[in-house]
Amino acid sequence: MARIRLFVAIRVPVLPLLERWIEGMKKKPYGAGVKWTNPEYWHVTLRFIGGVETSFLPTLSQGLSGNIQEHRPGSVSLSGAGYFGRQNHPRVLWAGVNGGDWLTALQASVENGINQSGRAQPPQAFTPHLTIGRKKYAPFSPEMVAEMERQASFEWGQLQVNEVVLFRSDLTTLGPVYTVLETYHLSGLF
After folding, report:
1. Which residues are bridge partners to 82 per DSSP?
2. Which residues lie below 8 Å from residue 113, measured CB to CB, with a gap of 6+?
């Protein structure tokens, strides 16, 4: 039986200020070696599910739908920049995402939907962020770290969230390809 990799996320449209900043970083010597995320694929992951059998999709979708659609639309702000990993060897560059209690509750509903479908996930801390780039091998230069720190509180923009998406992720030699499998519209009262 076929297996597919899945995750649940909020799509993020291109944010002009963030895109311009990234384009500037790409032109700097320290931007070399970073695999920059295609803005077409920008998203805030609510939960990475991993590999599942395709036969599990209807059950998973039903669990997610029942939980996600109870939420009302909300908004998140994107600001700042940072990295995961050690300062001398950061691995992931990100823009910060803040949605307060609303986003935390939405993420918990995604967890509940996955668990109700019979695919219990090990607990994970939820750190909302938008991955803008990755660097696997060479360490970052001090200039890159300083540039990230200069953007620590810069406001990239606001995002109105009206839906949550179940994505399929296929890894290719050119990078990941994300396919929308299901869209859940937020229409609830909480």
Report:
1. 94
2. 60, 63, 64, 65, 66, 67, 68
Q: What are phi and psi of 93, to 5 degrees?
A: -95, 140
pLDDT at 88: 66
In degrees, to the nearest 5, what angle opens at C-alpha 39 toward C-alphas 23 and 77?
95
Whether residue 175 has pLDDT greater than 70: yes
3-state secondary structure of 59: helix
Token couple for 42: 């920008």
The residue with greater pLDDT, 32 or 185, is 185
CB 76 within 8 A of CB 10: yes
What is the pLDDT, as a whole number, of residue 138?
Answer: 64
Q: CA 152, CA 83: separation in Å to the nearest integer?
A: 10
What backbone phi and psi angles, to 5 degrees, belong to 61?
-60, -40
Range with the largest mean pLDDT of 57-61, 82-86, 118-122, 138-142? 57-61
